[in-house]
Amino acid sequence: MSDEVFEKMATGMTGRFWPLEGEPAEPDFHGFISRDDDGYWLVELEGWRTAGDGTDLAGPFPNAMVGLLGGGTVFLSALQRWTHTPVWTGQRIHVVKAWFATAVTGVDILNVHADGIVLAESLFPNQRPWARYPPPDWRRREASDPLGEGVSLDLPTGEETRLSVGNKMTLTVRPTWWSEPEVDQLHIGTGLSLALSTAEPAPSKLYVETLERLQDLIGLCWGGRVVPIPGQGKVNDAQEETGKFWAQPLFETHHGVQADLSHPFPAVNLAQLGGPRAFVRWLILCRYFSRATRGVAEGMYVGASVETRVLNTISAVGYWVTRHHGSEPWARVHLSNRHNSNQLWRLVKHLLPTFQGWVGDGEVFSKRLWWDYDQLRHDPAHMVDYELLHAFTIGARLMLISALLDKVAGSTIPSERFATHYWQVGKRLRELLADQARCAVPYSGPTTDRPPS
After folding, report:
1. What CA–CA distance (Å, rounded) separates 259 from 367?
2. DSSP 11-41
3. SS3 for 116?
4. 235 and 279 in contact (C-beta within 8 Å)?
5. Which of 18, 222, 349, 373 shows the smallest number of beta carbons within 10 Å?
């Protein structure tokens, strides 16, 4: 199946489909596949098995299917939802609609027995400023050149790095390029290839979740979501040629702040994180400190209210600091009795003097933001200063990202880069903190700084 298969499938193709229940089950079902408005693969099957009076499905709908289409074959997995509707055309025909998130093309349908793949690749475009691979080079050829006189574009091959990332999975990192034919020209794109592989088929969900975490790391360095393009995919060794791999969660763009890849410099590049091995260290953080990594990654999505962002960000800060109480002296620094539960203050103290230009000694900033966080948790009627809280939460989130990336890099380079790169955030915080009356904690009665619940 050609590289344009996903475009052909998106517009709609008919074919024969087999559910995967240990192996392709007989009989097959006639159906139609297309891509819905949200990017998921919609398969409409005719004559699905029913039980009893024909109004109910005979057993649960399978999580994976294989299909034989006009242009080749496809493996579908990660079932999102399904619906079934009897259609009357003189006789009852049971039609099932099923939505799948993951697809791999070019499979040998007779040798696929379950939901599992051995290769999944995503290509992240325009990553040379971040991954620092060599640029393409235009070269003028002389008449004596074996190709004759003319112009050549030499694309860098670059070294590939293979890393074990757990779950018997290997990550291969390498610079790559691809071509995209247009009406009157050929567009050549360059980017970073992240390919996951296993010796034996592993659930596609495991591949997608791992790639999403790697995508988060790239996005946090750029300050927004970086959407890849489909790379290679393979279901098992019986598949002689690699097909294409599609995972809709990686391509989601709605409700997301998109990274500005035209900017010449991200906040932190891969070399400053320690090179490709940073991917492994980030996955370790995601595995053991998931509430912190998810807390900052979800901040790349728009649409959440200021109150929700405060709760998400500061609870992630509290989790990160508390998890380090037993191993890091900075996480158990004693504060005054009134504020001893203020984990944000401990994090800010730890990151000083790097962020001193943003928040001074951090006391006013930490007390006010932690107080609002505490009030939102315990007082449904609490009214907030939206402008103040929005700016303070952005600053706290960037500080937490800095702390996480410092852990990945094993140095303070990421936090130093963040403090410089996001200087406009620091400038706004200084302006707000200059208004002491506005930033003061309006205590009334006993302290509202309660122990963490």
Report:
1. 32
2. H-EEEEEEEBSSSBPSS-EEEEEEE-TTSPE
3. coil
4. no
5. 349
Q: CA torsion sign, 112 to 115 to 119 to 125?
A: positive
Structure tokens at 189: 């794109």
What percent of the chain lies above the pLDDT cut of 90? Answer: 57
What's the pTM value of the predicted model, to 2 decimals? 0.89
> What does the pLDDT look like over 45-93, one tens digit per residue?
876 655 444 455 556 678 899 999 987 899 999 999 888 776 655 556 6
20-42 pLDDT tens trace: 866 666 667 888 999 998 889 99
Q: Give 85: exposed, middle or buried? Use CB within 10 Å, 0-12, 13-18, 19+.
A: exposed
Which tokens go with 170? 């290997």
d(C-alpha 328, C-alpha 321), whole Å = 9
Q: Does domain 5-111 have CATH number 2.30.110?
A: yes
Prior bond to 266 cis, omega within 30? Answer: no
What are residue 370's phi and psi, to 5 degrees?
-65, -35
CA distance 306 to 104: 40
